[in-house]
Amino acid sequence: MLIVAQPRSASTSLLYTMAEILKIKPINGLMRVKKAAGYSELQRLHRIIGERTKETIKNCIQSKNKIYRLHLLPIEKHLKILDKIDDNFILLLRDPEKTLESYMKYCKSLQNNSKLRTICLKDLYDFHNKWVEFAINKKNILIVHFSGLIQNERLFLRRIADHLGHDGGIKALKKLNMSKDK
User: What is the per-residue pLDDT across 99-143, written as a single tens digit (0 to 9) for each?
Assistant: First the structure.
């Protein structure tokens, strides 16, 4: 099972929450194999972003006892691989402007360099828009927006569990202590 996530979209929290609900092992990113063309600022900010092999992508999606979270770049190679896989996966996206704001809270190089901010924002828009364009009409990809997930956690967690074909986790979801329930 796989969550493809835009950086700074609460994907690590979603990964561990879904692992608890589905009673499976979470795998939080994999080290990159090699640097991909483009997305220079995202790759600089995240060591785990880069080009993935067909085997890695396929193994992540088709795993039934683990759930993976990857910041998978929407490069041609990755999209061609995914186009040939029918297994369901999750695409977690966030507004690029909000993502940049999140980066700015901890990344001094972005705080102090408007050129890097511009490059980063372009990378984020490209990441977001290419994924939306690829996924919009694909039934095996559930697009989840950060803002929706934050506004209605239970609804989206249920949709994700259903999409991944894991109805056994619904009982765990009912017991889960959600932030809005407190």
Answer: 998 888 888 877 888 888 899 899 999 999 999 999 999 999 999
Distance CA 48, CA 34 (A): 10
Q: Are 67 and 27 in contact (CB under 8 A)?
A: yes
Q: Which pLDDT tens digit goes with each residue over 140-149?
A: 999 999 999 8
This prediction's pTM:
0.89
Q: Which structural domain range is residue 172 located in? A: 2-177
Listed in sequence order, the DSSP H helices in the chain are 11-22, 40-45, 54-62, 76-83, 96-104, 108-111, 114-135, 146-151, 153-163, 170-175
Is 182 among the domain residues?
no
Residue 118 lies in a domain: yes
Q: Letter for the amino acid at 25?
A: K
The pLDDT of residue 126: 97
Residue 167 lies in a domain: yes
Domain containing residue 141: CATH number: 3.40.50.300
